[in-house]
Amino acid sequence: MKGSGQAPASAPRVCFAVNAEAVHPPAARPLRILKGIIGLPANLFYGTGIPACILVLDKANAAARKGVFMIDAPRAS
Predict the structure, then answer these.
(1) Long-range contacts formed by 20-25: CB under 8 A, 24+ apart
(2) Angle CA(15)–CA(18)–CA(21) in degrees, nearest 5?
(3) Ramachandran angles phi, psi of 64, nearest 5°
(4) pLDDT in tens, 16-30
(5) In sequence order, what are the beta bridge partners of 37?
(6) CA distance 15 to 52
(7) With 0-12 CB in 10 A as exposed, 13-18 as middle and 19+ as buried, what is 52?
(8) pLDDT tens per residue across span 50-66
(9) Could you tell me if residue 37 is left (phi over 0), alpha (psi between -120 and 50 degrees) or otherwise beta?
(10) Are 14 and 52 in contact (CB under 8 A)?
């Protein structure tokens, strides 16, 4: 990614945690490129029945970032 680049990444939902400390451990905090996590329901992707999540990576203003936004899409209405 470029210095101010953005990227999405998909992963199994086991990475989606309620506690931001588990998602963004102290050793990884100096990077702070993880901007958010969007939890997705099961059976969304063809051929897999497990839930997934989208990791939102953003280098812009990463040094000033203090938290991670989390959306639990299966529960959103």
Answers:
(1) 20/67, 20/68, 20/70, 23/68, 23/70, 24/68
(2) 80
(3) -90, -5
(4) 555 555 555 555 556
(5) 55, 70
(6) 9
(7) buried
(8) 888 888 989 888 888 88
(9) beta
(10) no
